[in-house]
Design a protein that fits this description.
- The structure is a single chain.
- It is globular, with a radius of gyration of 21 Å.
- The protein has 2 domains: 248 residues, Aspartate Aminotransferase, domain 2 (3-Layer(aba) Sandwich), CATH 3.40.640; 132 residues, Alpha-Beta Complex (Aspartate Aminotransferase, domain 1), CATH 3.90.1150.
- The protein has 14 helices and 12 strands.
- Strand 4, helix 7 and strand 5 form a beta-alpha-beta unit.
- The N and C termini lie far apart (55 Å).
- The longest helix is centred in the middle third of the chain and has 32 residues.
- It has 394 residues and is of the alpha/beta class.
- The strands form 2 sheets. The protein has a 7-stranded mixed beta sheet, with helices on both faces. Strands 8-9-12-11-10 form a 5-stranded mixed beta sheet.
Amino acid sequence: MSASFRYRPETRLVHAGSLRSQFGETSESIFLTQGFVYDSAEQCEGRFTGADAGFQYSRFANPTVDMFERRMAAFEGAETARATATGMAAVTVALMGQLRAGDHVVASKAMFGSCRYIVEDYLPRFGVASTLVDGTDLDQWRAAVRPNTKVFFFESPTNPTLEVIDIAAVAEIAHDAGATLTVDNVFATPIWQSPLALGADCVVYSATKHIDGQGRCLGGVVLGSEKFIIDNIQMPFRQTGPALSPFNAWVLLKGLETLAVRVERQTRTAAAVTAALDGHKKIKRLIYPGRPDHPQAEVIKRQMKGGSTLVAFEIDGDKAAAFRFLNGLELVRISNNLGDAKSLVCHPATTTHQRLAQAARDELGISDGVIRFSAGLEHQDDLIEDILQALEKV
């Protein structure tokens, strides 16, 4: 275990995994190279057999990417990590690396649209069956298990309605069935939730969101034990090429340095916005982890250290009413992204979840009035004033 594990998480975010060249630079270096040269043919052979631990090719590993992976692992409390070009690349390699034709996946219905596509449409092309359940209903997880069930998968809090799933309870059900649990922890971030400590076998992130946090680049990461990564992720990762670019890895390293202060500030802002919207006559549903009226308030109290940077609320009206609100905003920007320094707002029914049939959206509570708000770093009072004035236009 790295010596950096003795430090607290905020310190790991700044220092863990650092690799300095002979020049002793303060900021991490960008090793913007495709390949590496060797002192001898014997050394080259050793790199490919594993006898020599050096670098071979940036599709496999790269010094800047390696720093990002080590820092993420130290922060998450994982033994190792593999960084990918996007968050969806992380989800795809994490799932496909564990599965073979004839296997079965159980997943929560409430997922980001692209994640649901992978589980519901893409994996079955390769002979992997899937069952979708209400992730908050433990009996549904148990009932969905088959003899060939190999993987459980969910995100928590969910996108966009912020349901929270009991990670420890679902992990126990998965392990009793001989399956593994993979958790997408994007909405909670590693600041507020630690799935591995709660029993998950694998954690995935879209580093595009809070980890970068400033709208600059794409990235993803898969984390777990050394055995899990070697047995399931290493070979698909090396051979299929979802590698993160060294430049993006460097940007993400810079993002990690400020992750804690950004997420803590954004969470306070999201809570303040929620309080300002509570009881508003034009909002018929308000969802925020940490509120006592959240449907999974007891689970949140047990497994999360804080709320979220996201708020979901439902306009009392149809799509036209929701669009009048969105178009009435002057400071908050419309975007399908989240976790940015700029506050962003999204209409899931026509963007992130538009591919789902109306019946599926209705089942998940994603009506035409649902809005997802991602708190940025602006002054909370400016955001509240902007949202309230836009609501007057509904």
